[in-house]
Write a structure and sequence with these properties.
homodimer, 266 residues, Spore Coat Polysaccharide Biosynthesis Protein SpsA, Chain A, 37% helix, 2-C-methyl-D-erythritol 4-phosphate cytidylyltransferase activity (chains A, B), IspD/TarI (chains A, B), ISPD_synthase_CS (chains A, B)
């Protein structure tokens, strides 16, 4: 696969922030994207991560009807310069990705554009993780942030009304998928086109679409971290608050160092 | 496989608490088993969980030389009635399990005994998880506590100096192994005997020994929970403290209900 213009400066880097999920495991009456952690709604944490990355050129936010207006107001209030559109998503996660890909195609985005698909429920994605994804897409057509599993993973099968262990993959080869998951635009589009013909298609993960339908395209692993956690249930909120406090402190320390440095430069 | 006396009352239920690990990912100078969380060393939390379960008949604690005396003093100070021995473990986790199995064989433990192997770095194992393991061993010869993975799991392979995704198992069949992992004594002994002949044998997980060497013995999954976390690095301590506080509150509430109930009974 050839990329016409592979230099970072001329290739668009488009972040797709998925914020359409209902969060059945959270609270049906309170969309988790809008829950505030350290004075900032989860979806704002997520959008900001990409807004602040100098290599990201454009952001699409995929929303549901239920959160459309609230997120629209947040985007307006924060005056994000890169958010191009709030886009209506679908019922399943894959419907939302498909809607975003269709909009990008309509907008004439080139095939070699780097598309970073991010789950808005992972508010603490780091700049290193985003950069790692963009870098890996210089060499690969697909890459995903993932964290080595500290627990041994068990793959199971049904046994009566129970699950029983089928196999135990080696721990050093077991990773927990996080996001962003990055793809050259033509790669993820092709994978979704192939998948569209499959009636059993209902992936919970975009990487899976490439692995299953384009098995010859290697998907690179980009080093993630436990801080890039997903808020799934209310039980995740105390941990999310702890991480948010650490992130805020780290940013303040960095800003201080930068200020001292600038002052020293006169 | 037949069990001569399968009733709960006559079959020994032996907990093996593994506390010999060095914890390279924690702090080589401070054994994590001895770190105090809510006024209690981690290893004490773990031993107490089994001491308090009325169905557990005996406890073996596997230690290293470095922590032998400290854990010995804790066991003495707490006057645990079920702790039969502090046993010297080995360098690898599997060496420690093997040492425990050898001691049980020497002590004449019957083949149908239920052996629950627990990682002392999981201090907040619940009574439901221990009971679930004991119950499952009424029907199966092996069972492990495990938690459904909320993250999609990626299985990788080497690609140059990177990891690349090889396959993406279905999320509903992806579990994170926890402990206790329970086995009929004759089953785990046989699996370890077979494994001993394999020079490449270095499992990080006892369930894996059964799955790999006794593939016809189904290993049942017992419902675990995120609270049954493993303390691996210092970054895990804030979460561990949060869970400890919840556990303490829950126990106090239970004790209060029990007191009110007893009072009402006169």
């Amino acid at each position: 696969m050839k990329h016409a213009s592979a230099s970072v400066q001329t290739t668009p880097v488009i972040a797709v922030v998925l914020a359409a999920g209902v969060g059945h495991r959270f609270d049906p009456d309170q969309p988790k994207q809008l829950v505030t952690i350290e004075d900032k709604p989860i979806v704002v944490w997520s959008i900001e991560a990409f807004e602040q990355n100098p290599r990201v050129t454009d952001i699409l936010v995929v929303v549901s009807e239920a959160v459309h207006d609230a997120i629209g107001e947040l985007v307006e209030a924060n005056r994000y310069s890169k958010v191009r559109a709030l886009l209506q998503g679908g019922k399943e996660r894959s419907d939302s990705t498909e809607a975003a890909l269709a909009m990008l195609a309509k907008a004439g985005v080139p095939g070699n554009a780097k598309v970073l698909i991010h789950d808005s429920a992972r508010p603490f994605v780091s700049q290193e993780e985003i950069d790692g994804c963009i870098d890996a897409l210089g060499e690969f057509t697909a890459a995903t942030v993932a964290c080595p599993s500290t627990d041994t993973i068990l793959l199971t099968g049904d046994l009566g009304d129970r699950q029983a262990v089928r196999s135990v993959p080696e721990r050093r080869h077991s990773f927990r998928a996080q996001t962003p998951q990055g793809f050259r635009f033509e790669t993820i589009r092709k994978a979704y086109d192939l998948a569209a013909d499959d009636p059993d298609f209902r992936p919970t993960d975009d990487t899976r679409v490439v692995v299953d339908y384009l098995p010859d395209e290697p998907v690179a692993i980009v080093a993630g971290s436990p801080s890039n956690m997903k808020v799934t249930t209310k039980d995740d909120l105390p941990m999310a608050r702890l991480i948010a406090q650490t992130v805020v402190k780290r940013r303040e320390a960095k800003a201080k160092v930068r200020a001292i440095f600038n002052q020293a430069l006169g």
